[in-house]
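User: Batch of two.

Assistant: Item 1 of 2:
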Amino acid sequence: MPALYLGHGAPPLVDDRLWVSQLSGWAEQLPRPRAILIVSAHWESAPLTVGATETGTPLTYDFYGFPERYYRMTYPSPGAPELAARVKALMPDTEPVAEAPGYGLDHGAFVPLMVMYPEADVPVLQMSMPSLDPQRLFELGRRLRPLRDEGVLIIGSGFLTHGLPFLRDWRPDAPPPGWSRDFDEWARETLARGDVDELMDFRSRAPGMPYAHPTVEHFAPLFVTLGAATDPEDAPETPIEGYFLGLAKRSIQVG
């Protein structure tokens, strides 16, 4: 299986026809996963924590101010207790793994999965980010790499630029601000030449900072994905690019 980094967006993104067609078309080209392990920008928790593993745990509606219909979304995917046990087994003693039985999939997980696997018939496990340090997340991805050979689709879910406080035009097709365009172009070029060290130093080396990421949790899942790559220095595929609300929705596939 490959590993992915994708832009998940807020719940209304499921109503954007272009994004839905891009994401569903991408999923159709992927091998059928045995299970999905997803790391969302919206769950930071230390120590490393796995969410609810049993079928039937309610979703986590971690968003505010949207129409009521978005709070009635459901995604009854099967639980993944075997995958949770496998994740624990892959971690060293210095990386303990906790459990959060009541933490259902948050919108960084269920929004894209509703589009990619609308039948909700693939077991899904969500894992927290115990840190936002790129090197540590890369190492976590490296330890998770064997799961790809076991049919597990590893997904880092964020957004390539996420400067919400600096947006002034809230139309879905708004032109990207300069900081968003510059960061996106830098990421495209840096990923293409496989410069993982420069990517890890994005805070000081990427143009458009700190506007592109006033907080960095939406870029951080990329490093789990890169760590899970067979060769992180290989240029990734880019099934989705472009902008939504002026934010870069560039999404990549490695392996």
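Item 2 of 2:
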Amino acid sequence: MKTLSAIIPTYNEEAYIERALLSVAFADEIIVVDSFSTDKTIDIVSTFDCKIVQRKFDNFSNQKNHALQFATCDWVLFVDADERIPYKLQSQILEAINSGKHSGYKLKFPHFFMNRFLYHHYNYVTRLVLRSDCHFEGSVHEKLIINGSIGKLDAPVLHYTYKGLQHYINKKDSYAWFQAEQMKKKGKKATYFHLAFKPFYRFFSSYILRGGFRDGVPGLAVAGINAYGVFSRYAKLILLQKGLK
């Protein structure tokens, strides 16, 4: 039987961390990498059988790469504090790591917004990997790099993504600045065409092509905010190009 380490990065997650830890209790080892929380996060984690690693935060990739050094099991599952691994997915994970079919797996993340999960707004993200020869790259939207094939597990992760409308919009804005700066470093240019076309296509893709209209008013809201996020990214890139920021 293959063994499994669960890694959870934290910073001031007292409202979420206990339920996250309970949902990964099926793992052989749990590692919490904390960015020196100032709330009760560590007190709560200390009541569980976990390894606690504290490190000053610089970016998401470095934080998770640091935690990887403390993992001792064959496989590693990366979980955020606001995520839950339900029983069906736990079974799929244990079956997958013992199957020998792939070196990693993408997990399904439906969005949680306006007090419901939006099953037509979802992403697949690589979160379950063989520990040997894997690492993260990127600063905000970090990417897990592995050697070998990647499969998919269909049971969803319960991810309480956004705490409200304003939180969702603020998150899009904060990411937009970082994305614009990264695009500028890569020599990419933004035009007014991008401001008009790119947001429209993101809305169309989210609401029509991916079936967001089936999620009712929350689906419409998410499609609109996603389009705003794209507009914000290119608007900020234009400001950077003109030296206005």
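The mean pLDDT is 89.
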